[in-house]
Amino acid sequence: MARQRAKVDFPVSQVRCYLEPGPIVLVSSALGARRNVMTMGWHTVMEFTPSLVGCVIASSNFSFGLIRRSRACVINLPTTALTDIVVGVGNTSGAEIDKFETFGLTAEPATHVEAPLIAECHASFECRLHDDALVDTYNFFIFEVLKAHVARTPRHPETLHYTGDGQFMVSGKVISRRRLFRPEMLDS
Amino acid sequence: MARQRAKVDFPVSQVRCYLEPGPIVLVSSALGARRNVMTMGWHTVMEFTPSLVGCVIASSNFSFGLIRRSRACVINLPTTALTDIVVGVGNTSGAEIDKFETFGLTAEPATHVEAPLIAECHASFECRLHDDALVDTYNFFIFEVLKAHVARTPRHPETLHYTGDGQFMVSGKVISRRRLFRPEMLDS
């Protein structure tokens, strides 16, 4: 079973640090007694403040109904330690199994939403639906991140980036070009 | 000067292979005698067919007007060989300089759009504006990829994934879990 990770609060305006690199994420949701988790790779940061994230959740997913009706979800960031779980979650349906039980994931209560945090992930971002204007046309949800929980170390964990066809690229190595940036484009 | 790369046609329904992993991209644009290139990290695949990509292009960018009025752009994929050029492009404005000249980038004619391909990039995706419903609210453009030009090798080049604060994660290593996927979720 994967290790649970202790988290600290992280500024919601800076979640781009984890999401802009484009990792595959695990999206958890809940509605009444039902809960689910799905893999998701089609997402983008849209704004710093409010902290907005747009993502495509196909209507064929069991999670679609839970998220649309509850108007909330949690976006969780798995590392490569969870690779096989990520694949398992993506290859099964919450209509048939409880994925938390099947894959040994620990659901922890969130602060602002009913959807659970996944304790084994490196980070969890509590999200409320901000704009559903493009849900009918493109299954495109715009969420506001209300609270961010992030493991203290490492700063840049090794993450999975899906290419399709069962293959992932792996990110983890970090290179800095801070010296080449205009000062106003850096955090500090 | 960076090496130019010969390209072959690539199926537009499969551009997720290059964009879903979340790399920083160079977006080129043109309107009459003006042309420009900008860096962009806020993008997501939205559909296979038609091949749709959504992205945020801040209205403060010189490129915003060129793209909005021409209703087109080219999304180019740089590799880590172009890291310093990517940073230079992101730290300057096309209102003041011709970035192709300044950074030694080669503009090649596209087939369907006026915006140029960047010969030094690994791949170039010709895009036409598909839906501007969220441009006024979020600077969010939905493009259709009309034609994809991709270097034959390597299949998965080393790409840059921006974290903010002048730092990039690097992807390149590939891991496969094809054996764990349901057959209908694989390409072949």
What does this protein look like?
The structure is a homodimer of 188-residue chains. By secondary structure, chain A is an alpha+beta fold. Chain A has one domain (7-185): Pnp Oxidase, Chain A (Roll). In chain A, 15% of the residues lie in helices and 40% in strands. Chain A has 5 helices and 12 strands. Chain A has helices at residues 16-19, 62-70, 83-90, 99-102, 135-138, and strands spanning 7-10, 25-31, 34-40, 43-47, 52-56, 72-77, 107-108, 117-118, 123-131, 140-151, 159-164, 167-176. In chain A, the strands form 3 sheets. In chain A, strands 1, 2, 3, 4, 5, 6, 9 and 10 form an 8-stranded antiparallel beta sheet that branches. Chain A has a two-stranded antiparallel sheet with strand order 7-8. In chain A, a hairpin with a 2-residue loop joins strand 11 (159-164) and strand 12 (167-176). The longest helix of chain A is centred in the middle third of the chain and has 9 residues, at 62-70. The relative contact order of chain A is 0.23. The model of chain A has no long low-confidence stretch (mean pLDDT 94). At the A-B interface, helix 1, strand 4, strand 5, helix 3 and strand 11 of A face helix 1, strand 4, strand 5, helix 3 and strand 11 of B. Strand 12 (167-176) of chain A pairs antiparallel with strand 12 of chain B, so a sheet runs across the interface.
